[in-house]
Design a protein that fits this description.
This protein has helices at 14-27, 47-53, 65-78, 95-109, 124-135, 153-162, 240-253, 278-294, 297-316, 322-334, 365-368, 381-389, 391-395; strands at residues 5-9, 30-37, 59-63, 113-115, 140-142, 178-181, 186-189, 219-226, 229-233, 236-237, 258-264, 270-276, 340-347, 350-357. It is of the alpha/beta class. It has three domains: 5-174, Rossmann fold (3-Layer(aba) Sandwich); 186-357, Alpha-Beta Complex (Argininosuccinate synthetase, chain A, domain 2); 365-391, no CATH class. The strands form three sheets. It has a five-stranded parallel β-sheet, sandwiched between helices.
Length: 398
């Protein structure tokens, strides 16, 4: 059944501009575009003009940056989620919010379907669609890369020129990489990066200085946490998005936040990607520092175990799943006393923890000191502790 109205996740780039025209031709339907501004920079500025040139009548462009950081990034940061030890999930965490707004706009406009421009080889198709189905099980989803006859971006360029669609290729803005950006990160894939032996070109990186060109003087910050979230930088209260933006700027100047990895996509393909997550890298290390003095050992270790599962849920697109929501409640509960201040130094790619303090600290200088025993710990007791815990090890040889 042909849809009458389709809400398209629209960036204004080559793929989604071609998709908008293709939807009109194939389905003879009304296309409504939705562009989410989640801190990616100037990309959204031209989206309205480009959509109008395509004949789009209803155009949604929304600044969701604060909602993105407050309701998606911050909850994820509380978990210390890092996929395969290095990727801070910058693209993964953005997809649920975009999907949520697509579903909400479709309901408001009485649209039959939503559409995205993710390819049939990547993770984003899964993330968009799992999120959408979780919010509206009856929604129709159109994924052109799984339907149309185009097999490469050269085909898209040819189609765009035939249909007089303005594209970045024609204005000298062509990038050799497939990129995604928001306030949390910028990702780079494709081009020479498809060969894992080839090094990325230095001019690829847009948000961080190289170690060689990073600032020659360190900077020291005090980061105030409340219930696991940074609320102040150097005693100045900031909103979540302003916290992340400030950390991004400082980290970028000091060469912090680059990674070059080969990751395992959910669809079963290994993919080489480069990521810049400047502010998020600082946040992650500082958050672990304040947790180290405020969280009970077994609760912290339980959270570490669950964090790997939580991370995979976010990466694979299960943000709106009952298991992620249940894990989030436990994680949020674990953060109730993760309040205090972390002092960090940034210098030449390094984040150096200088100190941490908290009114809820369970660190005891009296217990940890090497100078003298406290009344709560008798070193002689350790002998019995070790013997009890070594029992199974001593008996396994018998």
């Amino acid at each position: 059944m042909k849809p009458n109205k389709v809400v398209l996740a629209y960036s204004g780039g080559l793929d989604t501009s071609v998709i908008a025209k293709w939807l009109m031709e194939k389905y003879e339907c009304e296309v409504i575009t939705f562009t989410a501004d989640i801190g990616q920079g100037s990309e959204t500025k031209d989206a309205r003009a480009k959509a109008k040139k395509l004949g789009i009548k209803k155009i949604y462009i929304e600044d969701l940056t604060e909602e993105f950081v407050k309701s998606y990034v911050y909850p994820m940061f509380r978990s210390n989620a890092v996929y395969e030890g290095e990727y801070f999930l910058g693209t993964s965490i953005a997809r649920p919010l975009i999907s949520k707004r697509l579903i909400e706009i479709a309901k408001k406009e009485g649209a039959d379907a939503i559409c995205h421009g993710a390819t049939g080889k990547g993770n984003d198709q899964v993330r968009f669609e799992l999120s959408a189905y979780a919010l509206n099980p009856k929604i129709t989803i159109i994924a052109p890369w799984r339907e149309w006859a185009f097999v490469s971006r050269k085909d898209l360029v040819r189609y765009a020129r035939l249909n007089k669609i303005a594209i970045d290729f024609d204005s000298g803005k062509k990038s050799p990489y497939s990129m995604d950006a928001n306030i949390l990160h910028t990702s780079y894939e494709g081009g020479i990066l498809e060969d894992p032996w080839k090094s990325p070109e230095e001019n690829m990186w847009l948000r961080t200085k190289s170690i060689e060109k990073a600032a020659n003087k360190p900077v020291t910050l005090e980061l105030d946490f409340k219930d696991g979230d940074i609320i102040r930088i150097n005693k100045k209260p900031l909103t979540p998005a302003k916290v992340l933006n400030k950390l991004n700027i400082l980290a970028g100047k000091h060469g912090i936040g680059r990674v070059d990895i080969v990751e395992n996509r959910y669809v079963g393909i290994k993919s080489r990607g480069c990521y810049e997550t400047p502010g998020g890298t600082i946040y992650h290390k500082a958050h672990k520092a304040i947790e180290s003095i405020t969280m009970d050992r077994e609760l912290l270790h339980l959270k570490e175990d669950l964090s790997n599962r939580y991370t995979r849920l976010v990466y694979n697109g299960y943000w709106f799943s009952p298991e992620r929501e249940s894990l989030q409640k436990l994680i949020n509960d674990s953060q109730k006393r993760v309040t205090g201040t972390v002092r960090v130094k940034l210098f030449k790619g390094n984040i150096i923890i200088l100190g941490r303090k908290s009114p809820y600290s369970i660190y005891s200088e009296d217990l940890s000191t090497f100078e003298a025993d406290s009344g709560d710990y008798d070193q002689k007791d350790a002998e019995g502790f070790i013997k009890v815990n070594s029992l199974r090890l001593r008996n396994k040889q018998k």
